[in-house]
Design goal:
Elements lengths: L10 E4 L9 H14 L6 H7 L4 H11 L7 H16 L9 H8 L4 E5 L4 H11 L7 E3 L12 H10 L6 E5 L2 H10 L2 E4 L13 E2 L4 H4 L3
Parallel strand pairs: 1-2, 1-4, 2-3, 4-5, 5-6
Helix pairs in contact: 1-4, 3-4, 4-6
């Protein structure tokens, strides 16, 4: 059975990268550029390995892939964030149906955003996309000790929205995001951007947020 309609929940919490905004291509550009600067080649398999994961995981992965000592991984991630920040200031588009869904739900249920990206990138991306005031609550990796797949971001989002996790719906696109939402006790609808992404643990999997527009 499909979960109830989005507006029937007391709150809907959106992921950002790859779910709300079409930023994964920008992340890929940043990752490719980072590896180029350090004499490596960032592959699609690399992309699938780090998509939706925490920066701590990415730091370890980058250091290992580029043959660097593990402590250098954090510097590599910071360099990638600088590249990504420049990308986000240029242009950011919404994923199909995403911005329309936010507008449809506004005033009908409480809206939050929970992102593994740092506050700098989240604020910049939302500003470029014209969504600065779209969400009542925004939580980022800067706000918690453990990012997705840990439940911390979703628990904090629900706390600040004033709703129980069982009364909230999460919209996600990655395995780590689905795991975080489910661990926090939210119902989760997954909208994978890439066919290789395994989001089978979600309560429902759809091809596009446009499918929810007809239900909202």
């Amino acid at each position: 059975m499909s979960p109830p309609l989005p507006h029937r929940y007391r709150a809907v919490v959106f992921d950002m990268d790859g779910l709300l905004l079409d930023t994964e291509i920008l992340w890929h550009r940043a990752e490719v550029e980072l590896f180029r600067r350090h004499g490596g080649e960032f592959s699609w398999d690399d992309k699938m390995a780090v998509i939706g994961t925490s920066f701590a995981f990415t730091a370890r992965y980058f250091a290992e892939r580029l043959g660097r000592p593990l402590p250098e991984g954090e510097a590599l991630v910071h360099e990638m964030i600088e590249i990504m920040h420049a990308e986000l200031q240029q242009d950011v588009e919404g994923r199909p149906g995403a911005i329309e869904l936010v507008r449809r739900l506004t005033g009908r249920t409480r809206l939050g955003l929970a992102s593994n990206s740092p506050r700098l990138l989240v604020d910049t991306a939302l500003r470029t996309a014209g969504l600065t005031d779209a969400f009542e609550v925004i939580v980022t990796s800067d706000d918690v000790e453990h990012a997705k797949p840990a439940p911390d971001l979703y628990l904090l989002a629900c706390e600040r929205l004033g709703v129980a996790p069982s009364d909230a719906l999460a919209l996600e696109d990655s395995p780590s995001g689905v795991a975080a939402a489910k661990a926090a006790g939210l119902t989760c609808i997954a909208v994978p951007q890439f066919a290789e992404t395994d989001v089978s643990e979600a309560d429902r999997v759809i091809d596009s947020l446009e499918e929810l527009l007809a239900e909202a």
